[in-house]
Amino acid sequence: MADLQSFYNEVLEKLFGEAVERRKFIDHVISELRNSWDKYDVFIIEAPTGYGKTTISATISLYSINEELKSIIALPLRSLLEDQYDKYKKLASTMLVGKRYMNNPDSRYLSKPITLTTIDTLSFTLFGLSPEDFDKVVKYWSGTSMGSLGHYLFSVASVTLSNVILDEVHLLADEIKSLNFLVALIYLSIRNNQKLVLMSATIPTAFEKVLEEELRKHMSRIRFIRFGKECIDEKFVNERLSKNYEIEIVGLKEENRENYIKKYIQNKIDEGSCKRVIVIFNTVKDAISFYNALETSNTPKLLLHSRFSEEDKEKKIEKLKEYKKSDKYIIVSTQVIEAGIDISSDLMITEIAPINSLIQRVGRFLRYEGEEKGTLLIWYEIDEQNNLKKSGENHEKYKVYDYDLTKRT
């Protein structure tokens, strides 16, 4: 394999300039990829939130178009894709870099040498479909090639001839259907002898167990590279440990939660102990309700969730970029904020969630170097007996999450 280090150096220079500080664990990952590229098909990389995993995918992409053929970077959310696309345009021209998702056919069939796409679009493309054709295929499919609107051979070739990178892969490991797709993708990569790189700050233990059960014969083709287990960045760890913050955990009844959270925010602002606030709910309904009830005269506020139109999403991406330069804002969000959104806070108020999601959320709290003081409030909804409130038809859920998994957290 060609020296990945030179491509990594090029990524650092083009994205951050010559003054950028190198990350010890990223250097280790690049070295391991270079030494193990021909031995393994699947690389699973676990590194902390805010550590710079994007540089890994960018390095592999530059290597791919120079030494092999092409790469596909799959991301869970369009907002994250657009943010990453702006970075990739600094690495290569738009003739080489493209994007593909619903109603954005810039890189049809993921054919451009570097293509950023959503995980949904990647899954459709593997079956020879464009995301826009999916409903038509389901409606008119007759069980024969006469009824298919797909372009199977071309699209599946586009994927199998690429080095594929999936970021924020923990979001796929939380749902059975998504987990099945992920296991299938790993199997196909091994069978086709192609490279698949999975990255996240939290690789769930349940995901590893599924791999061992379903792909036990192929585990020798999978390489785990973990922060802390084989390489520790002492400077990064010490900087994180030096942060001084309070953690509060409180149970709230449904009828009281909005007023409690509003007063909590106002008290912290009045004390002067916070300026940048992120409030996270587990459902869109709860996030919208709180956002509408929140009165802010001097502090700009922003609502984030997955159900906005494409036009609104683009506007919110631009707003987030503005907020990064500001020292005062309140962001109300659902779990969409977990997926690599580069924003920070000195007051985070989050509803309880399974530990993998909670870690991702807290990655947006005192995220940057030099941010030293803050407050983290974790709340959960309680029933009349002050127990974690159950929901769902069979009372097996806490909001959108598994009840037992949330309770153990």
Jot down its keywords.
alpha/beta; 15 strands; globular; Rossmann fold; 2 domains; 409 residues; seven-stranded parallel β-sheet; 15 helices
Could you walk me through the main structural features you see in this protein, from its secondary elements to its overall organization?
By secondary structure, this protein is α/β, with parallel strands linked by helices. The chain folds into two domains: 4-234, 3-Layer(aba) Sandwich (Rossmann fold), CATH 3.40.50.300; 243-408, P-loop containing nucleotide triphosphate hydrolases (Rossmann fold, 3-Layer(aba) Sandwich), CATH 3.40.50. It contains 15 helices and 15 strands. The protein has helices at residues 4-16, 24-36, 54-67, 78-88, 119-126, 134-140, 152-160, 176-191, 205-214, 234-241, 257-271, 284-293, 310-324, 355-362, 403-408; strands at 42-46, 70-75, 97-100, 114-118, 162-166, 196-200, 222-226, 244-252, 276-280, 301-304, 329-333, 347-351, 373-381, 397-398, 401-402. Strands 3-4-2-5-6-1-7 form a seven-stranded parallel β-sheet, with helices on both faces. A six-stranded parallel β-sheet has the order 8-13-12-9-11-10, sandwiched between helices. Helix 13 (310-324) links the parallel strand 10 (301-304) and strand 11. The longest helix has 16 residues, at 176-191. The two termini are 43 Å apart.
